[in-house]
Amino acid sequence: MSDTSDTVVRPAGFPSGAAPGPLRRYGPWIVLALLLLVLPRVFSSGLSISTMCVMGTMIIFALSYNMLLGQSGLLSFGHAVFFGLGGFLTAQMMNMMAGGEGPLPLMVYPLVGGLAGLVFGVIFGAVATRRAGTAFAMITLGIGELVTSSALILRGFFGGETGITVDRTEIHQVFGLSFGPQVQVYYLIAGWCLVSVIAMYAITRTPFGRICNAVRDNPQRVNFVGYNTTVVRFIAFSLAGLFAGIAGGLASINFEIMNSAQMGAAESGSVILMAYIGGVGNFAGPIIGAIVVTYLHLMLSDLSDVWELYFGLLFISMVMYAPNGIAGVIMMQRPLIRRGQLLRVAPYYVLALIPGLVALAGLSMIIEMTHQLSISASEGLGMTMMGIAFNADALLPWLTAVVLLGGGGWLGVRAARLAREAYGAAMVRGRVQ
Amino acid sequence: MRKLFATTAVALTVFGAAAVPASADTVKIAFVDPLSGGAASVGQMGLNHLKFIADTVNAAGGVNGDMLEVTGYDNQVNAQTSLVQVQKAIDEGAKIIFQGNGSSVGIAIEEFVTKYNSRNPGAHILYMNYAAVDPAMTNEKCSYWHFAFDANVTIKMEAMTNFIKDQPEVKKVYLIDQDYSFGHAVADTAVSMLKEKRPDIEIVGNEFHPLVKITDFAPYVAKIKASGADTVITGNWGQDFALLIKAAGQAGLDVKWFTYYAGAAGGPTAIKQAGLDGKVFQVNEGIANLNYGPAMETTKAYTERYKDAPTMFPRVFNAMDMMVKAMEEAKSSDPADFAPKLEGMTFQSFSNGGEMFMRADDHQLFQPIIISAIGPVESGQVDEENTGWGWKSVGEIAAKDTIVPTTCDMKRPG
Amino acid sequence: MAEILFFSAVNGITYGMLLFLMASGLTVIFSMMGVLNLAHASFYMLGAFFGFEISRHLGFWPGLVLAPLIVAVIGMGVERYGLRTVHKHGHVAELLFTFGLTFVIQKLVEMVWGKLPVDYLVPPSLDFPAFTIFATEYPAFKLFGLLASIAIFLALMLVIKRTRIGLIVQAALTHPEMVGMLGHNVDRIFMLVFGVGVGLAAVAGVIAGPALVTQSNMAGLLGPILFVVVVVGGLGSLGGAFVASLLIGLVQTFAVAFNISLADVFGPVAADSGLALYLDDIWSVTVAQVAPVLPYLLLVLILIFRPRGLMGNRES
Amino acid sequence: MSNADQGGTAALELEGLEKSFGPTRIIRGVDLTIVRGERHAVIGPNGAGKSTLFHLISGHYRPTSGRIRLDGRDITGLSPEQINRRGLARSFQITNIFPQLSVWENVRCATLWAMGYRYNFWRDIDGLDDVRLRTEEILGQINLIERWDMPAGMLAYAEQRALEIGLALASDADILLLDEPMAGMSHAESQHMVELIRKVSENRTLLMIEHDMGVVFNLADRISVLVYGEIIASDTPERIKANADVQRAYLGTEVA
């Protein structure tokens, strides 16, 4: 029957079995490696190196989460458990080997975290992956609570609420690397980040990785092509635990402290935000999300007392209107670029963006003024926004805010509709040409 | 949000290579505590105190001619976020870090500062701890670059038990604490110190409950009642305290309460609701109604500036005033120069003028401890949380009667 | 001992009924719409805070009526303009939406009322001990809470058994796949059910607010327990939710009463190795200490031995 | 039954199969033998239990009582994937594909287990030549090569139905269960589908549910009539047409 396929002309791009060229296959990774190598030379301040260390850790963590949510359609509310347990095990191991006793150099310690993540992934996965969907989400929530609460009770191992501290320079040193200077830790994290990202990308391109996608799309059908969906979920869960554990191990090397807050519900929630805001439908999405969310997390709090509220609103609006996250929005522009239509649509984007920003300004005025009136009342009602000073209980600013929000919102919705139409038209035009 | 948009530019250039160097004539003080989210109000109070004191010092000509500049950094009460914020502060030229909320954050900063100074030759970052009270910070984890200005768990228990020692009506004591290291420290020191000072007292219960997880303390109160206790000692704070007191009031539990944090936000309201007039005691370094002249004047000036925020942290004043004195003695604002002056310094307590001293062995401040009870106050006196109830001193323990040993093995630089 | 047992039982039942007030709404919403409303406890919190704010101006009783109504209207808005938009993106998106909602509601509450407990007072008319037994007083307000929960429970049963919408809800509970065939007004029924469901949670909030604590973390504390209740009871089973509510209420209060640890039963750990140090933690932990963990332990055990929950009849 | 005189071995045997939902008996004791290599159609009025019967055979439901044997081995109570691995694949009445995956990925995923790659998470899937060739072969059979990179959810209805068959083919099963493959199709599309089914069922055993009598009588070697959960007749098309019971119970009302 194989002759049937020979009679059909293969369309362009049809898989031919020829291996992609080395540039195509390894090029992006080499670029990424070079980028990681030069970043600390471009951003050399202590803060930027520290921030990049956190970002590197979070990239692994967010990607590991996306093995569940984006790749396999599993919504977990307890993923930080593996991050935390990986971190604690690494820290305990480091303390045991402190004083240069163990033969292992610091570079391999994240593997301890990874193994811990894997082992606990197997244990908890055996329970959680018996169910899918909502029940799975609730079980992970329960496991998260169980482990976090237990961590406070088992003070000997978890060090109570202060956690346990380590000294990374006490570990057996090789190549004269003490890992005292933060930049050395940066390169350690960057190395592990690169390896983990490549590994996780590779997994998406294996038979198992594709079956995960199938399970996400239609688990029932997967049963009828020979797969046990529970096993698929279980493997995905365990592997996600492995990488989350590596991230946790890196975190404990980076901060030299690990406490139970790092595995609590807040941390589990934040990884959901990272993956989702970045975009779960695209491999690069969680990477973008980890970078953006970490940056905002560290910087936005200096700007507003209620930054977390903005964060929540951003998340909800993305769930409602941009379910594929930042990466999804970027990917939507790709066909336009390919068809040479982006510049024709771009003005519409700007048109929609301006009233959108106006509405945002109005909303943020309302939020900040409410905040000033309630919680910050002790500091007086005077406040300054965009260099303009006013009183939070005056009528004019409230009126302004409502007008900005209402007017901007109304125009924004209209302009967004125009932009959508322009996008559709451009797609059609591109196809015709 | 006062800073909103104004600091956008600064934040966006954070990734710019060069850190802003500290100008020669300012001393940068970084205040690392919660400044966003629900705990912001607590952190904001500390920041207000620091700014108030810095302005006072600056108005009088500054320190050695240099001006103090206080900047807030939001740590979201998270240990790891705190470390990035401390790094940010250091980049921006701060050498003095103030922090107080949360021992887990405190220990993280203490370790970070110590390691940072040893790994970066020439760096002298100092951690001024105004409220974190884990005894570990001045014992096994003690650091030359850390000074503790609040009385820690053991010191307060020493003061508390010295007070209880002379209360013959205390016969049966029930201990209830949060199930984490602070709660255990409270319970353990209470047991050992009571046994030593009042062997006749019977400990009828030593209970630990989960931290900030209990919504109804009625079952616990039933247990206390069943035990026949006449006194309860608790380290509970926040909602764990408020709910415990509330449940006690509802069940009509009639005992004396010796507490660490009854005065913290929410506490007085709960006590008044439960109607426990004169039954609840707290142990701290100072209260509003001590009628000590200099403190009253400062309090007045402070409340004029921050109208609805009368809560005072005497320890912030102690910390800042002692630091300024050390800088002046050393004629330098580099921690490497003035830290030796801070060691062993004696000073007058902000609250009542009593003598206090910074023990050089572990950098723990010893200061007079006030035992106070809450009840209705006359007009003119300071009440708490608009309840009409305020704290009144029932006993003062001098600094020399609060000394506890330390296991600190201080590693000094050089 | 008898008094501890008695009060544990009464407190456990009160707490359990409170849980059920919320779990019932959650279950009905789940059966009808197939979405587990993760923000359910947030509406409970909103109920408490609105009740508190109204009680400051109008008194407790208007708050008991108005706060749930306001919350119900908000809930209907959320269903109409939020959930319905997200519905086309699938169940995961719906869950994420309600998850985001918990975050936003908590931050809003913190923004307006702060993180510290607010002073939500028991109404003076109920501020007296209902009875005194074993020399311990039992507050009238708590008794009122218990009775109110039971009354609402009975009223709810009546509505479900006797009204048209009740019949639809009943059908949805037994045959969830049939909901799609309800015809053109299904949207309005969804909105109504969601509104009533979160309104019930708000009633629980107004009752729990003065009795327990009104604070911005109350949703975060209760939410996970609530989900344990519905999963242990069996997703979509009203009877299961009832049993599980009482079970978890009683387990939590009774566990507090016992100070037994493994060390008490088996004796202290003998070995003096490093491992024994960690083991000692587990060994010396009392039942009372682990009380809040027990529901989650129960959840895990139930899922191992009875994956569909106590009375559940569907997989997921 | 008259299966013995067909001369073949039994591919699938149902014995006293029953299924009840609560008090309602949907399948009331079905005995049926499908002979290796035959094309067998199940017909019957709506609600007769045809799809339920398929769900029982494919492991989606567990029978209340009775046995199911595949190639002589008991598969009663096995899970769908276990049954699939023993060589039985099926399609669904309501299109049941992976909507977000491309057509290529849909078929490729369905081939993987049979090709022996199982849960392999260390080999590059694009480097598996056997999988690629097999996928291409199936796409060729179902005429979807042109559409290979389109998300399956965006295919035209008839194309989705073809893909549905493709998924069943991909697992390389000896026995195909097709549940109303022509449902909702135009006449021209049906013709296409008949040819496709004829082609793919060569060298296989086929069991299908179908309402279109033209298709059934054109395609099937034997036909079973299911009415109210019972098989009232099972025979060659000609004899079924002539069967008085069938006329009365079914054909008389449904096909004028």
Automatic annotation (TrEMBL), chain A:
Q: Which GO terms describe its cellular component?
A: plasma membrane
Indicate whether Disulfide bond appears among the record's keywords. no
Q: Any keyword Transport?
A: no
Which of UniProt's keywords are assigned here?
Cell membrane, Membrane, Transmembrane, Transmembrane helix
Subcellular localization is given as: Cell membrane
A Gene Ontology molecular function term for this protein is:
branched-chain amino acid transmembrane transporter activity
Q: Which residues form a coiled coil?
A: none
What membrane topology was assigned to this protein in its record?
A: Multi-pass membrane protein
Where are the membrane-spanning stretches? 26-43, 50-68, 74-94, 106-128, 185-203, 231-253, 273-298, 310-333, 345-367, 395-413
What InterPro entries does its record include? ABC_transp_permease, LivM-like
Query: PANTHER family, from UniProt?
Result: ABC TRANSPORTER ATP-BINDING PROTEIN (PTHR30482:SF17), HIGH-AFFINITY BRANCHED-CHAIN AMINO ACID TRANSPORT SYSTEM PERMEASE (PTHR30482)
Full protein name: Amino acid/amide ABC transporter membrane protein 2 (HAAT family)
| Lineage of the species this protein comes from | Bacteria, Pseudomonadati, Pseudomonadota, Alphaproteobacteria, Hyphomicrobiales
TrEMBL record, chain B:
A Pfam family matched in the record: Peripla_BP_6
Coiled-coil stretches noted in the UniProt entry, renumbered to this chain = none
* Signal found in the keyword field: yes
Q: Does the keyword Transmembrane helix apply?
A: no
**Keywords assigned:** Amino-acid transport, Signal, Transport
GO BP term (any one): amino acid transport
N-terminal signal peptide: 1-24
Task: Tell me where in this chain the Leucine-binding protein domain is found.
Answer: 26-371
Q: Which family does it belong to?
A: Belongs to the leucine-binding protein family.
Q: What is this protein called?
A: Amino acid/amide ABC transporter substrate-binding protein (HAAT family)
Identify the species of origin: Hoeflea marina
UniProtKB/TrEMBL annotation, chain C:
Record protein name field: Amino acid/amide ABC transporter membrane protein 1 (HAAT family)
Per UniProt, the keywords (alphabetical) are: Amino-acid transport, Cell membrane, Membrane, Transmembrane, Transmembrane helix, Transport
- PANTHER family the record matches: ABC TRANSPORTER ATP-BINDING PROTEIN, BRANCHED-CHAIN AMINO ACID TRANSPORT SYSTEM PERMEASE PROTEIN LIVH
GO: which molecular function terms?
transmembrane transporter activity
- Name the family: Belongs to the binding-protein-dependent transport system permease family. LivHM subfamily.
Record's bilayer topology term: Multi-pass membrane protein
GO terms in the biological process aspect are: amino acid transport
Q: Which organism is it from?
A: Hoeflea marina
TrEMBL record, chain D:
Q: Name one Pfam family in it.
A: BCA_ABC_TP_C
Q: Which domain of life is it from?
A: Bacteria
Keywords on record: ATP-binding, Nucleotide-binding, Transport
The record, for InterPro entries, names: AAA+_ATPase, ABC_AA/LPS_Transport, ABC_transporter-like_ATP-bd, BCA_ABC_TP_C, P-loop_NTPase
Q: Which GO terms describe its cellular component?
A: plasma membrane
In this chain the ABC transporter domain maps to 12-253
An MF annotation (GO) of this entry: ATP hydrolysis activity
Please report the name of this protein according to its UniProt entry: Amino acid/amide ABC transporter ATP-binding protein 1 (HAAT family)
UniProt organism field: Hoeflea marina
